[in-house]
Amino acid sequence: MKKVIIDVDTGVDDALAILYAVQSEQLDILGITAVSGNVPLEQVTINTNRMLNLIGINDKITVYKGASRPLLREPFHEFRVHGEDGIGGALDHIDMEIPENEVFAADFIIEQAKKHKGELTLIMVGPLTNLALAIRKEPRLAEWVKDVVIMGGIVESAGRGNTLPTSEFNIFADPESAKIVFHSGLEMTLVSLDVTRKVMLMEEHINELEGTKYFDFVKNSTGIYRNFSAGLYGINGCALHDPLAVGVALDKSFVKTEKYYVDVETKSDLSYGQTIVDFRGLLKKEPNVNICTDVDHERFLKMFLDCLKK
């Protein structure tokens, strides 16, 4: 099985991504690293451990705390979409003691990359702070890590961002870290809003899960998210941003990709956090990021639902 570390800022779609990764039974999850993002780090850690408890594997996978804030900017959270606790109160019924772990997330990434040279895939579905810190501490990560799949950015649909008109949340929350990661030499695929918004979990899809173990969680956790989406976009659905990143790590044929030079805007108030892709090669820079240009959304959604039905 493919060895992976999943880096999360556990809101609704992160929780669904964890569920999908586990239920796929195709990934050797070495650990889960937590980062400040959708909600503060402490809540991310609580949500992630509760999610593992719901699945029944909290004794098998360890959660490692990482950065509690971005490299330079003040912490930025997204309570409007994910609710005050990040998952719409869907796991409030789980009363558990949250395990303490003294290993810092960036150190865990370095340790596992060194131990499993050429084998490790990083699935990054939150701000990229933990990975940027790991790169700063150990530049040889680019030689050790096999692949990085990043949920973040918006490239071909500029003006349709979800934080600023040109910016996606994960990159906007810590663009300086994203800049470090994009220029690190790591082999990476950017799963952007351009494709994740084509994979919508609608109410009829959720109803397909009725009678299964995760029906109540999926329905309850996505409630606030779906209401927000209905109010802003007129669509009562939950975009499967983070689960699609897991899907790409499992099977890259879900998406079509092309490699271009990508950079991140870190100075402009108007476009802070924008992922800028040089489609025409005007900057004369070596391509550094595989961007997703299309997705087989029907096949992915079927695979996702089939996994949860298990």
UniProtKB/TrEMBL annotation:
CC annotations in GO: cytosol
Alphabetically ordered keywords of this record: Glycosidase, Hydrolase
Single Gene Ontology MF annotation: purine nucleosidase activity
KW Transmembrane helix (keyword) present: no
Biological processes annotated in GO: purine nucleoside catabolic process
UniProt xrefs under InterPro entries: Inosine/uridine_hydrolase_dom, IUNH, Ribo_hydro-like
Entry keyword annotation includes rRNA-binding: no
CDD domains to which the protein is assigned, alphabetical: nuc_hydro_CaPnhB
Domain named Inosine/uridine-preferring nucleoside hydrolase: residues: 4-301
Pfam families found in the cross-reference section: IU_nuc_hydro
PANTHER family xrefs: INOSINE-URIDINE PREFERRING NUCLEOSIDE HYDROLASE, URIDINE NUCLEOSIDASE
Protein known as: Nucleoside hydrolase
Organism: Neobacillus notoginsengisoli
